[in-house]
Design goal:
The protein is of the alpha+beta class. β6 and β7 (about 120-125) form a beta hairpin. It has helices at about 35-45, 60, 65-70, 85-90, 90-95, 165-180, 195-205, and strands at about 1-10, 15-20, 25-30, 50-55, 75, 115-120, 120-125, 135-140, 145-150, 150-155, 155, 185-190, 195. It has 7 helices and 13 strands. The relative contact order is 0.14. Helices cover about 25% and strands about 25% of the residues. It starts with a strand and ends in a 10-residue tail after the last helix. It is globular.
Length: about 210
């Protein structure tokens, strides 16, 4: 597996290009905008984009995913169906924030325990509600690597003041579904620098072992 982080939109959201080195097949996770930049990155990597993966329904993560999928004729997988209300109002949210966005219907809604494939790679789908009710993360166990969207950040956690956000659900998702994956797991958050679960268990002011003790 190889990964490239491609910040997009004025919110500098971490879109990730992940690809299988054995097959050259790739996926973009959370292509919220700046599609020309993303297509250029795919071409530069010399890979074949086969699908789009979505962690959750917020504008900066998936506002232009439907447009890219339609242009390239590729499917969208994710998020969990509980985020359908966010995706249905992408057009309105785009206009509100001055960003081009379009609602879409994923080709596949994802559930806890599902898997997604990218070439020969298989990633586990883990439902982590709290930031949004339908948020999922993608975990590649052999590489000890996760794409966690806006669940967890270096030194922080996702906001829960949006409609149907829930702070306790988010804390439970992090401690009960992410921490058991292992301290050595490196993750790409939805914004900002990468970190590891172990580092956040030691130092994160919201979900460190000390903070929750």
């Amino acid at each position: 597996m190889k990964v490239a982080i491609l910040p997009v939109t004025p919110l500098q959201q971490n879109c990730s290009l992940i690809w299988c080195t054995a097959t050259g097949k790739a996926a973009l996770t959370d292509p919220g905008g700046d599609l020309d930049k993303l297509k250029e990155a795919v071409a530069k990597a010399g890979v074949t984009l086969e699908k789009i993966l979505i962690t959750h329904g917020h504008l900066d993560h998936c506002g232009q995913a439907g447009m890219l999928a339609e242009e390239l004729g590729i499917p969208i997988e994710g998020p969990h169906k509980d985020d359908i209300f966010w995706i249905e109002k992408l057009d309105d949210d785009g206009a509100r924030y001055g960003m081009e966005a379009r609602s879409f219907t994923p080709d596949r809604w994802l559930e806890q325990g599902d898997t997604v494939t990218v070439g020969d790679l298989t990633l586990d789908v883990i439902h982590c509600p709290g930031h949004t009710p339908g948020h999922v993360i993608f975990f590649h166990e052999p590489s000890r690597f996760a794409i966690v969207g806006d669940v967890l950040f270096q030194g922080s956690i996702g906001r829960t003041d949006f409609p149907r956000g829930n702070h306790q659900d988010l804390i439970d998702a992090i401690t009960q579904r992410l921490w058991p994956l292992g301290d050595d797991v490196m993750f790409i958050p939805g914004h900002g620098p990468t970190s590891t679960f172990g580092q956040e268990r030691k130092t994160n002011a919201f979900v460190s072992d000390y903070a929750l003790s």
